[in-house]
Design a protein that fits this description.
The chain is an alpha+beta fold. The chain is built from 4 helices and 6 strands; from the N terminus they run H-H-E-E-E-H-E-H-E-E. Strands 1-2-3-4-6-5 form a 6-stranded mixed β-sheet. The two termini are 28 Å apart. The mean pLDDT is 93.
Length: 149
């Protein structure tokens, strides 16, 4: 799959997966800029789609000995079907192959994805007080999670 097609697939999921209230979705330029970096990778899940339409994606960045999960999203029509777990499992395989021994992520404290992350073995390892600025002017803590692989 070429980069343009990959970005098209990512953006199609991005448009449906994120609640605008939180401002977490990336724009096309952010995705394109990230994916041209040699240490940034994407995993697309096409599920059982005959048309190879993405049902989910994740974007990750590698650094020596570790991997950072930057973004993960699943089209709402395909949630609770194991899509995110499948992509995280593939990320673990890929990260190990790149020499990582830990995967990190950061998210807002009220993110319901916490259940997913805890379920696959991530553990909370830090908190950034008042890290996220919300659209109403309030702030919310960020929680950092780590997974030994």
């Amino acid at each position: 799959m070429n980069k343009t097609s990959q970005v098209d697939q990512i953006m199609a999921v991005m448009e449906t997966a994120f609640d605008p209230q939180w401002g977490e979705a990336w724009n096309r330029r952010q995705v394109e800029d990230a994916l041209v970096l040699p240490n940034t990778f994407a995993i697309l899940n096409t599920g059982d789609s005959k048309n190879e339409i993405a049902t989910g994606f994740l974007i990750t960045r590698h650094a020596p000995g570790e991997e950072e999960l930057l973004l993960i999203a699943v089209d709402p029509k395909y949630r609770r079907q194991g899509t995110a777990q499948k992509m995280l499992s593939q990320l673990t395989i890929d990260a190990r192959a790149r020499g990582a021994s830990r995967i990190f992520l950061e998210m807002r404290e009220n993110n319901p994805a916490k259940i997913l992350y805890l379920g696959v073995g991530f553990e909370p390892i830090g908190r950034r007080k008042a890290y996220y600025l919300l659209s109403d002017g309030n702030r919310m803590d960020a929680i950092t999670y780590g997974l030994s692989i």
